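Researcher: Here's the sequence for the chain we discussed earlier.
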Amino acid sequence: MISDYQQGLREKFLSVPVIPPPAPWRRILDRRTPIGGLLGIGFALAPDDGRDLVMVVSVDGHGLFDAVTGEKIARDRDPEDSIPDAVWDLSCPGLGPLAATRVHIAGLFGGGLHTTTEDGWTLEIVSPEWPNHRVLLSEDGGIPHNGPHGESWWHIFDSNYSELRASGFSPSGRTLAVATSSDLTLWTRPAPDTASPGEAGA
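Model: Thanks. This is the structure I predict for it:
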């Protein structure tokens, strides 16, 4: 049995459609990036200019993506420590510009990404139709989301077609990622010190 409060939340989350996040968030490539057998993802900063990079671990190897453009910048089909659960901290060796580092991976084997940013954005995963998951973005502090959908909280992703692996913000707060077992979706925004929640942007 669930309480009346829980039932009310379930009905609320089932009633709202998927909509884009508000400005200043901008979706990369306007589509999902297909990655079959995706196991997990992790964030790191590019050593040359500090932009966000996203490392993807899949059954076919490792890939590194620019989180601002969505461009794949490195690929390793037979990496050392190919599965993150092979080591205690769920990390994998970096590749390309991150070759000298290890990247913590969140996904099938555990771990997690940031669910809040310093300037007030919150990300939540809800399952009103378990085992399917929905991803909510908000600037109202999170559940119960008393304000209108599309004004203070947004249902931005429904993983009803694939298993959710991980979702969250990069440590910089400039990138928002949702990874499923079959694809990766990225949103980006200007640095938090130049765009706060609710500020108009691209």
